[in-house]
Amino acid sequence: MGGMVPTDRLLAFAAMSFLLIVVPGPSVLFVIGRALAQGRRAALTTVVGNTVGAYVLIVAVAFGVGSIVERSVLVFTALKLAGAAYLVYLGVKAWRGRGSLHAAFSGDDSAAAHGGLRTFWEGFAVGVSNPKTIVFFAAVLPQFVDRAQGQVAAQMLLLGLVFNLIAVASDAAWGLVASGARHWFARSPRRLSLVGGVGGLTMIGLGVTVAATGRKD
Predict the structure, then answer these.
(1) pTM of the model
(2) Residue 148: which residues within 8 A CB-CB, separation 6 or more?
């Protein structure tokens, strides 16, 4: 069917998306921080807002940046290398800052919960401005589009939907775990340091993979 993403590309994109999503980045840290401070409901509301914000980025790429990237090998290569470099930068930053995660995860149990709508919009703001997600959608998502199938924008929207489904499941899991073990996380800087270190190394590996693979058809 025209505009459908080939199964092999869809699975490869899902795998790369999973690797990116499970790494604690700005969105995950925000969800966990909200869970630790305000509990499960606030965390899940934040996840919903975050996901909507991310899909706004997908739509923008599909109908704007994506079409330019799809037509230009030079723009594609520049974005890919810039994206790869930024992912490596984020990984190095996460690795070097792994010892300071305790402050991001610490919550105040006495903090008053925000209203649901405000929590949603704060999550949306984080999702739509997440640099890791912006780089991924602009530099990586177009690599998995099959130009021969046509309907490039529709393919990007489908790939973005796959990304968001994985993100919802992963972020919600992080939020539920954090809300259920908020005191356990907050008491253990060593555990948080391990999470940050592993996340940083994974991000570096992902950046190297983006730079070395995914030539445009």
Answers:
(1) 0.67
(2) 217
